[in-house]
Design brief:
The protein has eight helices and seven strands; from the N terminus they run H-E-H-E-H-E-H-E-H-E-H-E-H-H-E. By secondary structure, the chain is an alpha/beta fold. It has a single domain, classed as Rossmann fold (3-Layer(aba) Sandwich). Helix 6 links the parallel strand 5 and strand 6. Bound molecules: nicotinamide-adenine-dinucleotide (NAD).
Amino acid sequence: MNVKELLSLRDKIILVTGGAGRYGKCIVEGLAEADGTVITASRNLEAGEKVVREFRDRGLDVHAMRVDQAEHDSVMTLKEDIREKFGGLDVFVNNAVARPMHGYDAPIEQFAESMRVNATGMMDIVREMADLIATNGGGSIINISSMMGMYGPDLSNYDGTDMGNPPPDYFFHRGGLITLTRYLARVLAQKKIRVNCISPGGLFDNQPQRFLENYNKKVPVGRMANNDDIKGLVVLLASDASAYINGENILMDGGMHV
Ligand SMILES: NC(=O)c1ccc[n+]([C@@H]2O[C@H](COP(=O)([O-])OP(=O)(O)OC[C@H]3O[C@@H](n4cnc5c(N)ncnc54)[C@H](O)[C@@H]3O)[C@@H](O)[C@H]2O)c1
């Protein structure tokens, strides 16, 4: 098949959780630019609708729905709504993340809240969306983890800033998501679902100048990720061009860890 056809997402129904967030918005944009029909879902429907309005003005096929992945009823409502409105699902980008914990010494209840959303809720929505994809004959799941799921924090990045107390929950659930990718790639293959993971580096978001100086000098390409950097990778993993890529974790950090 022609490679442009292999990479096209035409006729694919794609769900991105947290699609109004920082990486989420880039992911939604890339998938829709590759002709996918893209649904963004998160707790804040208004934020999703704002993204939808912006992209629809450019002719992209983007829709907003609501979900709280930590609430089983909400996940089931989303599943039913997608089935009813779109007839099924082909691709799930598991991107949402909650950040309730604020540093090493924070109350342990914040760790528990993080697990409720980022571990238990995340597993719940993955299982339900996998079921929807399986009913449709198979497809692709893309987990968005982080380089911080692979490496410990480099505290020297925070020298001269007040950002030097990274929360432990994030490293724990991002690492778990990479391992879960390998588990799911085996188990869901029986349902014709491929499961891969992208582990990005930091996205430029007007961080303090001192942080940028510390960070950028450690990256061979000399900068943080920009809004385009994740698009090609997520389109590849969503498309038939990656039919033989399964169970992979792809580090996208500009070479920071070579
Ligand atoms: N921003 C970065 O620099 C960076 C770097 C590496 C990896 N990542 C990864 O990218 C992904 C997105 O991160 P981000 O920084 O763009 O996040 P963000 O904080 O900008 O957005 C997170 C999104 O998740 C949604 N969300 C939170 N709790 C939810 C819940 N209970 N149910 C449904 N949706 C919920 C939020 O509403 C929001 O839309 C994460 O997997 C993160 O680990 C981000």
